[in-house]
Amino acid sequence: MSKVEWPYRTPGIPDDLFKRVSGVPMTKLEVRIISVSRLRLFPGAVVYDVGAGTGSISVECALQVHPGTVYALERDSHADELLEANIRRFGLNNVKLVPGDAPGTMEKLPLADRIFIGGHAGSLREILTMANEKLKPGGWLVANAVTLETGPLSLNF
To answer: What whole-number distance in Å separates Cα of residue 157 and Cα of residue 28?
Structure first.
């Protein structure tokens, strides 16, 4: 697979530039732009992408935080392969795949400047608890909600 030419550092990579596989979720363009913008990224930042799926958030973040690092946490091995393909597709070397279930995988990572939660597989409360421990003072957390239950749980944490 050849490297995709994307000359911009701002968020907004078109959805069709990402490799996709049925059953692996992807944060769509319009939601991705807002989510990444809300993270207030900066060069050198350490970012977690929890529930990375296709890696669309990881890729967008990696372009903005270089030479920082994005840790893409994903529990689905099929998504892991797709995520790695998209990282290669954009020629990135600052995304580290962290396979396994969060929050357990978060424990071994360095402290984060920013944390994005795109998926939680029913472990949102535990992930938020660990995120509270792993987020540097003054750090930012952005969580997307797909179901009606997720929003209130995030707000009441």
So the answer is: 26
- In the chain, the number of structural domains is 1
Sign of CA dihedral 128, 49, 145, 36: positive
Separation of alpha carbons 111 and 134, rounded Å? 5
Q: What is the pTM of this model?
A: 0.91
Q: What CA–CA distance (Å, rounded) separates 142 from 39?
A: 6
Alpha carbon distances (Å) from 83 to 37, 73, 140: 21, 10, 23
Would you give the DSSP letter of residue 106? G
Nearest Cα residue to 66 out of 97, 37, 41: 41
Query: Which tokens is 19 given?
Result: 């490799």
pLDDT, tens digit, 9 for 90 and up, residues 18-71: 999 999 989 999 999 999 999 999 999 999 999 999 999 999 999 999 999 999
CATH number at residue 122: 3.40.50.150
